[in-house]
Amino acid sequence: MLFSSITFLYLFLPFTILLYFFVPQKGRNLVLLVMSLLFYAWGEPVYVLLMLAQIVISYVLLWFVDRFRGRRAAGIFYILSVLLPFAALFYFKYFQFFMDVVFGIKTKTIALPIGISFYTFQIVSYCVDVYRGRVARQKNLVTYAAYVTLFPQLVAGPIVRYSEIERTLTKGIDFSAFHENFERGVVRFAVGLGKKVLIANVIGEFVAEVAALGTRDLVLSWAYAVAVSLQIYFDFSGYSDMAIGLGGILGFSFPENFRYPFISGSVTEFWRRWHITLGAWFRDYVYIPMGGNRVCMPRWILNILVVWLFTGLWHGAGWNFITWGLLFAALLVVEKGAGRVFAGRKSTAGSIDGKRFSKKNLTGAAAGILKHGYVVFVILVSFLIFHNDSLADAFSDIQSLFAQGSRIAQDAGSVERAVFAYVLRNRIVILCIGLIGSTPLPFWLWTKLRERLLTCRIGDRAVHVLMGLMVLGLMVLCTAYLIDGSFNPFLYFRF
């Protein structure tokens, strides 16, 4: 079941919310568990058993960890609690790829359970935190199962740690701020749905149209690269917004997963803004335990390579994902390595202070523009690698950005050029909307409008009315699209 489906929006979600708030607090975790299992089983009933088995096994193993804490046996049970979820993840996600690459053996295709990467990381983070004493072991199996299976973020994140929602799971909803959080949750969900359905899906149609052409001109090649990046961003961030919104509606506070990554001035900054919960997970559970940046340069480079190799593999078993991860590893080594070498030196890349246009200021501004352009180019290239199923197709798309390779129509006739122009002209508006929507500008404009309205006598009511109309408008438009259209891909089947 998808968030962006009529069944979820008008049947599953309303029923779940009503049932959740109808039952007493003691029964709400059970409601969440049952409805989350139903949500997951809607598309993959068999693999519900796999998820439940992992929940029960990790619960029992952590019971033994607590029972034998301070003794060697506790460490053994802890290792098992971490290794077994990863073993299941390896079998379903990487075994076929590993056998093909290492041994050259073609094996039977193994279906990938949706969301297995997300809930595996949640189970592992919980086991690690319990063993290290960061959180207390949850003794109620239903409550623990509700944490792992929580449907808002089960199949597409963000990756939520037990400590972040422990209070709500164990003590219930904080009703002192419930009305405000509920309202914010509804708005956040509607915005995320709009990003997914009205922007990501429409841009995805453009991506599919260009891919179907086979050949393209230079302008269309760059538009295609931009469209691929925007589709991935709005699809993923839209799902994250919907998850965070649903969490707010149900009384949970989920961590942010995206903060306008396309405005980044470096690759390092990009990964502080893109899929934040995944980056934080690898930082806290892999990078820092390996020594982080507190080691010698060769060891530090190895740490970066390992983390980003795993980051690439987390997204999928394929050479394109490995290449994608190692590309960012190399760029981060260069950026962070330069920072380590020149640590302590003051940067000369300042901004124009408004008093005078000195040569130094102009140079700094130009350097900032060039740096941002470099990051944007890296993003476009990286997502062409990410998007394609094979490296050959990815490199062909990259070559087309320079008017090279088989994708480019070198001797395009008038008919072909007319087709290229028509395809681009037909989608140029949504691409522009996507570019603007990927920046903080819309939120800034809304903030300014809200501040202006609040100065009026009925400003607070006007704000609420305007937010209500926005939610209603988005729901109507999204519903119309979902009823009329059939293009509604789920990009996270590989996760």
Briefly summarize what is shown.
The protein is mainly alpha-helical and 495 residues long.
Shape: globular
Give the SSE order as H and E letters. HHHHHHHHHHHHHHHHHHH
If helices are DSSP runs of H or I spanning 4 or more residues, what is the number of helices? Answer: 19
End-to-end separation in angstroms reads 15 Å
Low-confidence stretches: 344-357
The assigned structural class equals: mainly alpha
Mean pLDDT: 87
| Strand-residue proportion | under 5%
Determine Rg (CA atoms, Å).
Answer: 24 Å
The total domain count is 3
* Total strands: 0
Task: Explain this structure.
This protein is mainly α. The protein has three domains: 167 residues, no CATH class; 152 residues, no CATH class; 142 residues, no CATH class. It has 19 helices and no strands. α3 runs antiparallel to α4 and α10 crosses α15. About 3% of the residues have low confidence.
Q: What keywords describe this structure?
A:
495 residues; 3 domains
Helix/strand layout:
Layout: H1 6-22, H2 25-41, H3 45-67, H4 72-93, H5 95-103, H6 116-131, H7 141-149, H8 162-171, H9 178-213, H10 218-249, H11 267-273, H12 276-287, H13 297-315, H14 319-341, H15 359-387, H16 391-400, H17 414-437, H18 441-454, H19 459-484
Helix pairs in contact: 1-2, 2-3, 2-7, 3-4, 3-6, 3-7, 4-6, 9-10, 9-17, 9-19, 10-15, 10-17, 12-13, 13-14, 14-15, 15-16, 18-19
